[in-house]
Specification:
eleven-stranded antiparallel β-sheet, four-stranded antiparallel β-sheet, alpha+beta, elongated
């Protein structure tokens, strides 16, 4: 049986093109090093702890993110009598299937490691010295959010009820901006619920050394430097996707 975490991480990758943290409240940072197994990142160390320097690019422009599983999430809104900002309102969210997801995140921006050829050369040194394991990946991209709300259903019919001000309900991303209220709201049937005002890092990108399937690998520096005779073979860094881990528990 497919687990909820597999449904969630697969949907985020297929629909948005992001590797997703499980649980979604997991905190990641550029340069974190660890393993990916069972659709989960397990931190082991970091580039900083290994003494490996890396460059960070300019942070992207901020943008809001809103996503819901197609035809699987319904929201209901009821506002009490009174002017906006005075009366109270109720917001309900109902999930039609296990693994259905609703995300609202404000002020999102990407942070990325740059100069990958230089990073590769540094990691080759670590690898040849026996300080870099073949199954390690390094986090090279992180989405940081502002106020955010992420909900993933565990069963069909999961439901969340919120009592919010009419002013909040009239604005954009009410779940994200009402994150403090979300923590105290009634909810049932959820596998994961993230509600943070200070932000989260729900999505990331990672790189690892390319796996060699057939024959003897040749060392290929991205800078074009040739491998010296007798040096143990290695492979280039490449972006990691979930398809690389098909069949792993």
């Amino acid at each position: 049986m497919v687990g909820i975490h597999e449904m969630y991480t697969s949907e985020m990758y297929d629909k948005l093109g992001f590797l997703a943290c499980w649980l979604p409240n997991m905190k990641l940072a550029l340069g974190d090093v660890g393993t990916l197994a069972g659709r989960r990142f397990e931190r082991v160390t970091s580039l900083g702890e290994l003494g490996v320097a890396f460059d960070v690019g300019e942070v992207s422009s901020r943008a809001d993110l809103e996503y819901s599983s197609a035809d699987k999430v319904e929201t209901g809104l009821a506002v009490a009598a009174g002017a906006v900002g005075v009366g109270d309102g109720n917001l309900s969210v109902t999930f039609g299937d296990a693994g259905a997801t609703l995300i609202q995140a404000a002020q999102c921006r990407w942070e990325s490691v740059t100069n990958h050829p230089a990073l590769e050369r540094e990691l080759q040194v670590q690898r040849l010295a026996g300080r870099w394991r073949p199954d390690w990946v390094v986090i090279t991209k992180v989405l940081r959010t502002g106020p955010a709300a992420i909900m993933v259903s565990n069963v069909a019919g999961a439901r969340v009820n919120l009592r919010l001000s009419a002013e909040a309900l009239a604005g954009p991303l009410p779940l994200a901006h009402a994150s403090a209220a979300l923590m105290a709201s009634s909810a049932s049937g959820l596998a994961a619920r993230v509600a943070v005002r200070g932000g989260a890092t729900p999505f990331f990108g990672a790189m690892s050394f390319r796996r060699q399937v057939f024959g003897r690998a040749r060392l290929r520096w991205r800078s074009g430097e040739a491998a010296e005779q007798g040096v143990p073979v290695a492979a280039e860094l490449e972006d990691v996707g979930w398809e690389r881990f098909v069949g792993e528990a």
